[in-house]
Design goal:
single chain; about 375 residues; mainly alpha; 15 helices
Length: about 375
Amino acid sequence: MTAHMQRMPGLDLLRAIAILWVMLFHSFIVGGLGDDWSWLSKCGWMGVDIFFVLSGYLIGGQVLQRLRDHGRLGFGDFYLRRALRILPAFWLVLAIYALFPSWREVEGMEPWWKFAAFIYNLDVDYSAHAAFSHAWSLCVEEHFYLVFPLLAMWLFRRNSMLLTIALIAFVLLGGIALRSAIWLHDDALKPDRNWFIEDLYYPTWCRLDGLLVGVALAAMNVFRPQWWKHLRRHADFALLTGLVGVVASFWLHAQRGGLLANSIGWSVLSISFGFLVFAAAERDGWIGRRHVPGASWIAAISYSLYLSHKLVMHGVESAIDGRVHGIVAFALYAIAILAAGAMLHYAVERPGLRLRERMLRQRDPAGIITPSISAGNSQ
């Protein structure tokens, strides 16, 4: 893994699958895709967990490589990169949600400042305020960006593999124990609210598995390159293992709100996606060499698609007002969502990335920590 990472077609493919899967899941907003496609759309929420593993791997790799090569981390540069990557498009979409209530996919919305402070996922009345609810995963990622560099610096200075392994085990097993305890507590009391979403699915402390798996992959790549190189010989086996794990996760999450799904289910799913990310991370495996037409473009605009797709779904639904059905309606939704996502990406997100590159080059003329705009899937 180098500072000037090139786009990897396998990772682009996974990112494209993730965003398309999530949007198919959210099609319930406009009545869904019908019974024939329910098998595909009902598990689309899993696409978010692909994003978590990818973020852990890509962002974790940037942080850990900087520590390995220079023994320190430029926190100002790191947070500047994150801010100019995330905030411009996010602020615009948040402003639309706050200023134009009729454009929302549902009426109720939490106060705008909870989104701006990235605490929406920690304090939400989901039943009454579900507008822009998909921002919960962005809150999780922001918390990761805030905490992980500090934790990585602390572990690097301790230089203890045993401590690192112990911390990974603590986060993984602790997450299983915490989710199990929350589920048993809420299931016994049956509070009059959507406790699955509010207490289990959204809070950051319950959703660390994917980020942890991604960081573990990045740590092996950066600090144990000989292990990474040896295991790369089995990239296709990792792909098969990951696919088997995802199929097993479908069974574990057959009852999405059940104890099995919320105890070990997310851990199994995240580890399975970790195998897929490993298989896709370089070009020596089957998936790593796949250049699927359009996948890189979908991956490039995936963040803008994620932010805007619910607004567009609602807008198209209002415009057609039940007059169009079937494949024609699906095509209209798809075209509108892709067009709006592309517009947000090119008009807002890309200028922010170019500004980021200019500012970082001024701060770092030698180019030590300034990857190109396309590096690492525009992370």
